[in-house]
Amino acid sequence: MAARIGLGDVIEMTAGSAVVHIYPDQGGRLGQIVVDGDELLRGPDSGAPLGWGYWGCYPLLPWCNRIPGGRFRFEGRDLEVPISWSDGTAIHGLTADVPWVVSERSDELVVEHVDVVTGPYRVRGSQRFAMTDTHLDLRLEVENLGPDRVPVGLGVHPWFRAGIVAVPATMCWPGDTPMPTGAPVPVGVDEDLRAPRVPLPMDRCYTGLTGDEAVVPGLRLSWSAEATQVVVYSEAEGWVCVEPVTMANDGFALADAGIEGTGVVGLDPGATFGVSYRFAWA
């Protein structure tokens, strides 16, 4: 275990030739994966801009990507959450920039949770990191502790070194910005990542997945069936984000408009929804 000024407690997990750093005070995030001395993520010491959105691999909970103006409708109710980004949107949920509570910790296991009471949400998020000498498993869950049914989506936002990427997606959400303008369309030549390649600069949400694994620099990233979308962001020089998520960008608005395939889940009081990931380096 180590400590870094300004970042709070850092939990170090080790197995074989790999080391993983977890930052409970920084959204409970996975901050770095080091294998045979090579850093695979954009860590806090890698020249990333200051701010929670630009480094490591942080949890997206209880929604993914942006909500324009922080306002949305769900099952006939007008709901609102705080704007959290300079473009006037509420971005990446409510838990990536707040401290999490650690309930278990060892060289190869970390379990943590966070309680959120904001807008319509009364939820508990949990993360379970389990490490071996070949991979790191992450289980992300959200539990509805409130009295009302709420819409949710989960995901992770990892920053990888730029390089060859492969994503098994046949469709993507249309539009020139990250906010979709309609139903999914077949991937075009420039967006097609089914064959490994260095992606063009893009901020694109993919769907129509034919597999559960992406190739990213230094790793294979896989996910459970709940993740039906993958966001690829490659507009930051030297880095690429490959984000398997359970709901489409602006999924709440798309679902309210009756568009299919958004992945939005209505979570009943007392219910839990989760998704699993594996970062494999062997």
Lay out the secondary structure.
Blueprint: E1 2-4, E2 8-15, E3 18-23, E4 29-35, E5 38-39, E6 57-60, E7 66-68, E8 71-74, E9 77-80, E10 89-91, E11 101-105, E12 109-118, E13 121-131, E14 135-144, E15 150-152, E16 155-161, E17 169-172, E18 185-186, E19 203-209, E20 213-216, E21 219-223, E22 229-233, E23 239-245, H1 251-256, E24 265-267, E25 272-280
Antiparallel strand pairs: 1-2, 2-3, 3-4, 4-5, 6-16, 7-10, 8-9, 11-12, 12-13, 13-14, 14-25, 15-24, 16-23, 17-18, 17-19, 19-22, 20-21, 21-25, 22-23
Task: Give a structural overview.
It is a single chain. The protein is built from one helix and 25 strands. With 282 residues, the chain is mainly beta. It has a single domain (2-258, 265-280), classed as Beta-galactosidase, Chain A, domain 5 (Distorted Sandwich), CATH 2.70.98.10. It has a seven-stranded antiparallel beta sheet with strand order 6-16-23-22-19-17-18, with no helix packed on it. Strand 12 and strand 13 form a beta hairpin. The chain starts with a strand and ends with a strand. Residues 1-5 have low confidence and may be disordered.
